[in-house]
Design a protein that fits this description.
Elements (H helix, E strand, L loop, with lengths): L1 H5 L2 H4 L25 H11 L1 H16 L7 E2 L6 E2 L2 H9 L3 H7 L11 H13 L5 H4 L25 H5 L1
Antiparallel strand pairs: 1-2
This protein binds zinc ion (2 copies).
One zinc ion binds next to helix 5.
Amino acid sequence: MYLKNVMNKNTWKVKHRKTCAVCGKLITSKRFRTYCSNTCRNKRNNTKYAKHRSKLQTARYDALASIPSKEKKQCKICGRWYVQVGTHVVQRHGMTAREYREKFNLPLKKGIVPKWYKEFKGKQALDNKTCKNLKQGKKFRYKKGDKRAKKSTGWKSRRYKPDQYYG
Ligand SMILES: [Zn+2]
Ligand SMILES: [Zn+2]
C-alpha cells in the first residue's frame, strides 16, 4: 500500500534541479538531482513521511498492548493493557485520569498501576529522597470536612446519600 503510493507515476518523475529543494544551494554533485546533500534529502523525507511513521508506530504499540499481561492493568475503554493506564487514558482517550476513575467508579486516590510498579516507584522515591517532598506539601493538605476541599464525585459518591445530609 505504502510502496504503491511512492511508486505512483505522478510522484516518480524526478526533476533535474539546479538548486536544492530544501536549502536552495546549487547542486554540485552529480549524485543528487533534487537535494544538495544527504542531509537535505533526509530532512525532506523525515517531514514527508512523519505522519505515516507515527501511524505505523501506534499500530505497533497497540499490537503490543493487546497482549494481556499480569504485569499490566487493562484499560476499560479499549481493553488494551498498560503499566500506566492513567497516562494512556490521557493520551489516547482525551480524558483526565480523574475523569476515567469517576466514569468507572474507581477509587479516586489510588493510581491505576500494577502492584510491582507501585512498589518500584515507592522504592525509587525513598532512594532519591523525593519522599521528603511530602513533608513540604503537608501544609496544603486539608482534613476531612474542611471548607476549602472540593466535593468529590464518583467512587466516593457511591456512599453519598443526599437525604442523609440535607434531609
Ligand atoms: Zn540543501
Ligand atoms: Zn484505552
